[in-house]
Design a protein that fits this description.
CATH architecture of the largest domain: Alpha/alpha barrel
Strand content: 15-25%
Structural class: alpha+beta
Shape: globular
Number of strands: 30
Pfam families: Glyco_hydro_15, TREH_N
Organism: Granulicella aggregans
Radius of gyration: 25 Å
InterPro entries: 6-hairpin_glycosidase_sf, 6hp_glycosidase-like_sf, GH15-like, Trehalase-like_N
Protein name: GH15 family glucan-1,4-alpha-glucosidase
Number of helices: 13
Distance between the termini: 52 Å
GO molecular function, one term: hydrolase activity, hydrolyzing O-glycosyl compounds
Number of domains: 2
Length: about 600
């Protein structure tokens, strides 16, 4: 659809299916790039900042940075091997051109500014590309404006300022306060560069286009050097390595926190209301990331995850999630954007920031147990904090909570009780091995055993041959497959629960989160991998391997990015992306099949 922008000129734009977007990042922010060359999401300077480009949530008036051939084209995109540098190849009637996209870093690490670089190379024939940079309005709270000076044309969007840098063979055809239009007519062997250099409330050192272009390859080298340390080369190596690289994208280098996803408000059902902001750091994801990176041999990232986790616990206690800088998650606030495919509301903030979830205790103690089991040590302050949290879990496990799925109605969710059991079991193990004080361990043992008895007396259904979502219901919860990993007693009942989950919540290899979820959302990708992991841990390795393979067949095969959910009818992604939990679940499923585990 062609629309007229406030500064003039017609530019084609459309919102693509979510699986047609790839992600690039620099350890601080993440940009989503469509197969058509449009960058429809980029928050500057941080992952949880206001977006500079947000056409993904506002097709008509949102900010976007598009670079594509004029006229009809076919396109495909692929990451460079073991890298988060992206290459998109456009095939036109007159030639073939490749665009290489990178959020750049330097040899010394992250740059003091954001540098989004786009290199153009004509591979055959001749191609004319159109450029369109349109700044967003930060949800109508800022009015973009351009300021020409002797060093170039600067754009301002509230506290964000930046500059469009281009090589000499890119011609600017029109510019105004809202953005810039241009084009580049190139023949085989010719190259061009287009980049945005930006920051927030800071002076910016503007690099030359040659330096920006060079840093694309520097960044690629850095990604590949990091990926060389991934210690897995089994049958799922491509998926595992890509998942690790995506998790590295979501790791916020200034603090060590890992974001649940890079976006907000992408819907769990088109036209539905289940739209959430996932640009925050969940304790659960930190725990799972620690486990995955330890297995893959990435010790610095493991250290960063556990250090971030213990620091937050010391400051705020057992909270479910935090902002990327460690401060509290803000309350939910609706924004005025129309939403992806008109799926409203668009929100910032997340209610989980103030929820009571017993699962957080299990996540904390699982992370610490894995950390010390790998030969690492705890400081005395952390040991005191952990002992206090074990006491707190022993006191609170009988209370209802919002559960793992962060539901509005508080209940005695079975998985929450299992997580409390997990926490106290790990606390006892830490005390027995001398990592934390053992003075309260006898009480932790008694409460741990009471939880197991309570779950078996109140949450088991003889008619279903399964543990149920909560006492007194026939509903099932797919997250209970994780109880196998946690080592919850009675493997026979756990195996039967897994079979019931697969039968009642499954659509082929895909699973819904819980009974009734199919009415309001897609299948939850992590659940398929959790079930596969459970099968492997129960000794049913062939069944686990088959489920992993069947699930992967459903997914797009080109770039390896996973969304949160998937529409079982269309195989379109749903929910925020890239979804860290989906990639973590895939790694854990493969890990369960690995003989080195």
């Amino acid at each position: 659809m062609a629309i007229e922008y406030p500064f003039g000129g017609n530019v084609s734009r459309r919102v693509l299916p979510l699986q047609d977007y790839a992600a690039i990042g620099d350890g601080r922010s993440v940009a989503l790039i469509g197969r058509d060359g449009s960058i429809g999401w980029w928050c500057v300077p941080n992952l949880d900042s206001e977006p500079l480009f947000d056409s993904l949530l506002d097709e008509k008036a949102g900010g976007v940075f598009t670079l594509q051939p004029k006229g009809p084209f076919a396109s495909k995109h692929v990451y460079r091997k073991d890298s988060n540098v992206l290459e998109t190849t456009f095939t036109t009637e007159t030639g073939v051109v490749r665009v290489t996209d990178s959020l750049n870093s330097s040899l010394a690490g992250r740059l003091p500014w954001c540098e989004l670089a786009r290199r153009i190379e004509v591979l055959s024939g001749a191609v004319t590309l159109s450029l369109s940079l349109v700044c967003g309005t930060r949800d109508q709270t800022a009015s973009p404006w351009l300021q020409p000076n002797c060093n170039g044309t600067i754009f301002h969007v509230g506290p964000v300022l930046g500059m469009l840098r281009t090589s000499d063979n890119v011609h600017i055809t029109e510019q105004g306060d809202r953005g810039i239009l241009g084009e580049a007519a190139l023949a085989r062997g010719e190259r061009a560069l287009i980049a945005v250099v930006a920051g927030e409330d800071q002076p910016i050192g503007i690099p030359s286009t040659k330096d920006i272009d060079r840093r694309i390859d520097v960044s690629d080298t850095a990604w590949r050097a990091w990926a060389q340390g991934l210690h897995y080369d089994g049958p799922y190596a491509d998926w595992v390595r890509r998942s690790a690289l995506i998790l590295k994208l979501l790791l916020f280098s200034p603090s060590g926190a890992i974001a649940a996803a890079a976006t907000t408000s992408l819907p769990e059902k088109i036209g539905g209301k289940k739209n959430y902001d996932y640009r925050y750091a969940w304790v659960r994801d930190a725990s799972y990331t620690l486990h995955a990176f330890l297995w893959l041999g990435q010790i610095p990232e493991s250290q960063a995850a556990v250090a971030w986790l213990l620091a937050r616990l010391g400051e705020a206690g057992a909270k479910v999630c935090f902002r990327m800088d460690g401060t509290p998650v803000p309350p939910v606030q609706e924004k005025g954007l129309p939403g992806y495919q008109k799926s409203y509301p668009v929100v910032t903030g997340n209610a989980a920031g103030t929820q009571n979830q017993h699962g957080v205790y299990g996540d904390i103690f699982e992370a610490v147990s894995l950390f010390v089991a790998s030969g690492n040590i705890l400081d005395q302050k952390s040991a005191v904090i952990l002992a206090s949290l074990a006491d707190e879990c022993a006191d609170r496990w009988r209370q209802p909570d919002s559960g793992m799925w962060e539901l509005e109605e508080t209940r005695h969710y079975t998985m929450s009780k299992v997580s409390a059991w997990q926490a106290l079991n790990r606390a006892v193990e830490l005390a027995e091995k001398g990592h934390i004080s053992a003075s309260c361990a006898p009480r932790w043992i008694r409460e741990r055993d009471r939880i197991a008895t309570w779950v078996n007396e109140n949450c088991w259904s003889e008619s279903l041959s399964a543990y149920t979502f909560y006492p007194g219901t026939v509903r099932l919860d797919a997250s209970l497959a994780l109880a196998v990993r946690f080592g919850f007693p009675d493997r026979e009942r756990l195996a039967a629960t897994c079979e019931a989950i697969h039968k009642k919540l499954g659509q082929g290899p895909l699973l819904y989160r819980y009974t009734g979820a199919e009415k309001e959302e897609g299948a939850f990708l992590a659940c398929s991998f959790w079930l596969a992991e459970a099968y492997a841990t129960l000794g049913r390795r062939q069944q686990a391997d088959a489920l992993i393979r069947e699930t992967l067949k459903v997914l797009p095969q080109d770039i390896g990015i996973l969304g949160e959910q998937i529409d079982v009818k269309t195989n379109d992604f749903l929910g925020n992306m890239p979804q860290g939990l989906s990639h973590l679940a895939l790694i854990h499923a493969v890990m369960s099949l690995d003989s080195r585990r």
